[in-house]
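Notes to self after the call with IL:
- keep both proteins in one doc
- input above output, always
- annotate only the second one for now

Protein 1:
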Amino acid sequence: MPSLNDILLVPGNRPKVVADCGKLIEEEVDSKGGLTGLAVKAAFAVVKAVKPGFVAEAVDHMLDDFVNRLEPFWADAQAKNEPIGALLNARAGQVSDALLTISDERAAKSTNNTLKKAYEKLRPTGKKHVEAAVPRIGRLIAKYASATPA
């Protein structure tokens, strides 16, 4: 079975993966409710207003890192002949930690104070939000894996 890198980052798939990740993020933000949801939606609106196209650009810049962090989960699922979605769902906390490490590092290096402040406001609940996105992440990976010859 090909690596996750070979599935998601090949030139023909990468732009589609970036677009699908953008949709995934929009769906996750739209699904948030309550006071936390209002904060998430407001921060997301600020980010999109400050820099239109930021989400796609950020996804594209971070996609290699995300794939590298997800690769061990992919390899484990393949070794166990287990669907990637089921494995990711069972390890949602670990997946969240792996992915948030990347955005934490990027946010720390950012020179855009508005984006930094928005991230810092949301980060305390970030793990919960990323864990909630894990099923969608699993479905996204499965979509491309099923279209890739073994």
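Protein 2 (the one to annotate):
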Amino acid sequence: MSDTAVDLFVQAIPTAMRQALSGKGSARWTVTLDEKSKPFPAATQVLTMLMVAEPSQAEAAIQISAENAQLLSGTSEEAAASEDLQPGYVKTVRAVLTQACEKAAQALPGTKVYVRVAKEFAWTPASQFSLTATDGGSKSVQIQLLFATGWPQGASSAASASSKTANGIDVSLLENVEIEVSLQFGGRRLPLRDIGELRSGSVIELDKRLQDPAELVLGDRVVARGEVVIVDGNYGLRITEVV
């Protein structure tokens, strides 16, 4: 029997994860696929991120404990013992997991995988795998991979459930309707006098710092945030948060 897409991805992820972790610092990480999955204890605070496959938008999940997330972010052992999961930790860990998942997805022709933070997922995992990563010293990190049925081609149950509204109208009929969205880097309120004095070469300071996420705007509502990227010479947005 030939390997499934999940099998190929799981076979590729240890090497991809090792490269991503080792590239983060001077430690030389090793990553192994455990023979049996090792679910987190029920009381464990877990950071969950969705592995969304393109173009199908099918979802899988990757999970890491809050304590391990803080260790990967490079915090001290005292900070890692805290139960508070700070945004900075999440951003650092997401970057590492994104790099690893994008690399592993190269084993799946025609499929790309991006990672975004999620509080939960609405589908039931059909398969689960555990990875153990060690830095050769004191750090040992456990990572869980959970896959929905048919990933990366099958649509998640959440997508199926959301295709109809409460009154039974099939909103999938509207899926091909194009809606204009815009990428917003920031804003600034200016007196009318200052606007009238604008000239070529004028510089306007926006209300956001360089490292702050850009916003995807639909009408007057922010629908997502993320990192600005370049795609074939055009601006793009790598989604990190759906509002």
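Annotation: The chain has two domains: 5-159, 178-242. The CA atoms of residues 7 and 235 lie 34 Å apart.
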